[in-house]
Amino acid sequence: MFGLIGHLTSLEHAQSVAKELGYPEYADQGLEFWCMAPPQIVDSITVTSITGQTIYGKYVESCFLPEMLASQRIKAATRKILNAMAHAQKNGINITALGGFSSIIFENFNLQKITQIRNLTLDLQRFTTGNTHTAYIICRQVEQAAAQLGIELSKATVAICGATGDIGSAVCRWLDVHTEVAELLLVARNQERLGELQAELGRGKILGLETALPMADIVVWVASMPKGVEIDPDALKHPCLMIDGGYPKNLATQIQHPEVHILNGGIVEHCLDIDWRIMQIVNMSIPSRQLFACFAESMLLEFEQWYTNFSWGRNQITVENMEKIGQVSVKHGFSPLLLPSG
Ligand code: NDP
């Protein structure tokens, strides 16, 4: 059995969906209440591969909210993630993806040091960040959506916002050796880490967001920001492809510009309907088929019975592993979400 550990994007979002999930008593509660709420299994999932194989899974709501980080409730945030992992393991789940901020919190606060949760010792082999598949899918979205727009990658400038992150650095590696884009612009705040990435790649310009955006034909957004940023579409290149892989979204503005194309990043579509209801709650446009690529990674590991933490640690994703997970992604009927045609 596979598992997905997820969270909602804001307190407002959590309050609005509490009733739908069958928890009306949570609907009027503030952040303090959510800080105390235990993890819950709120959905059972059945997925059938294009090969005909069927697997079963559970969705664990961690009750973490990004406002916990913004308001420095770090202890509550870390407790949410560890308790959700313990809950997944206690329920016999073999491989569980740590969605959205779950893996970021795990890494940022060094939670591998705390594997004893009451009477349960966490078996970390049962968890994956799902970031290898996410990075692979974002790269395929760059390649395929650029083709949809007639952007020639060998002449294109690609800005990666969040370049030094786990997903961002993997995307840079792939675009360097696999796709051969003309120019990579590396955007993040910590200059030392940017310098290390530039040295590893042997290329890439380190720039601030304001300078990078007007130069880019394609912008990949994979920054771990609890709240999205506002941008001016007139200050961008036209056409410009923006692939927003953030959860919550990195872009706060609903951009309405004919030459600026926004694509929901790190999202896959399955070729068959999935029996679940959870993707309605995170506003996918086709909730029965669309999902986060990190969640799909735990399904792929279950299909293949690779019961191992395929994606783990930070900035260790290799192009080889992206190809490996990519092959089984195609084999089981997942494809990257693309721009609407026409
Ligand atoms: P990491 O924490 O590993 O990396 C985050 C990156 O963002 C770092 O480069 C960090 O560098 C940068 N960053 C953070 N804040 C800012 C800022 N204000 N301006 C510019 N850069 C910033 O995160 P991950 O790679 O694990 O995840 C990235 C995003 O992808 C998250 O939003 C996450 O929720 C989402 N995600 C989506 C998935 C999907 O399936 N679609 C799956 C998993 C994650 P610095 O701190 O130096 O600025």
Structure description:
The chain is of the alpha/beta class. The chain has a domain at 135-267: NAD(P)-binding Rossmann-like Domain (Rossmann fold), CATH 3.40.50.720. It is built from twelve helices and 16 strands. Helix 6 crosses helix 7 and helix 6 (131-149) packs across helix 11. The structure holds NADPH dihydro-nicotinamide-adenine-dinucleotide phosphate. Residues 100-101, 103-104, 130-131, 134, 161-168, 187-190, 193, 222-225, 245-247, 266, 292-294, 314 line the site of NADPH dihydro-nicotinamide-adenine-dinucleotide phosphate.
Map the helices and strands.
Layout: E1 2-6, H1 11-18, H2 31-36, E2 40-48, E3 54-61, H3 67-70, H4 74-90, E4 95-98, H5 101-108, E5 116-117, E6 120-121, E7 127-128, H6 131-149, E8 157-161, H7 166-179, E9 183-187, H8 191-201, E10 205-206, H9 209-212, E11 218-221, E12 240-244, E13 260-264, E14 267-270, H10 278-281, E15 290-292, H11 293-304, H12 319-331, E16 334-336
Parallel strand pairs: 1-3, 1-4, 4-7, 8-9, 8-11, 9-10, 11-12, 12-13
Antiparallel strand pairs: 2-3, 5-6, 14-15, 14-16
Helix pairs in contact: 4-5, 6-7, 6-11, 6-12
Bound molecules: NADPH dihydro-nicotinamide-adenine-dinucleotide phosphate.
Task: Compose a concise summary of this entry.
This protein is α/β, with parallel strands linked by helices.
List its salient traits.
alpha/beta, six-stranded parallel sheet, binds NADPH dihydro-nicotinamide-adenine-dinucleotide phosphate
How does the overall form come out from the CA principal axes?
Answer: globular
Tell me the strand percentage band: 15-25%
Bound small molecules, by name, code or SMILES, are: NADPH dihydro-nicotinamide-adenine-dinucleotide phosphate
CATH fold category name of the domain at 135-267:
Rossmann fold
Largest sheet: 6 strands, parallel
Helix content: 25-40%
Please tell me the CATH architecture of the domain at 135-267 by its name. Answer: 3-Layer(aba) Sandwich
CA gyration radius, whole angstroms: 19 Å
CATH class of the domain at 135-267: Alpha Beta
Number of helices: 12
Biggest β-sheet: strands ordered side by side in the sheet: 10-9-8-11-12-13
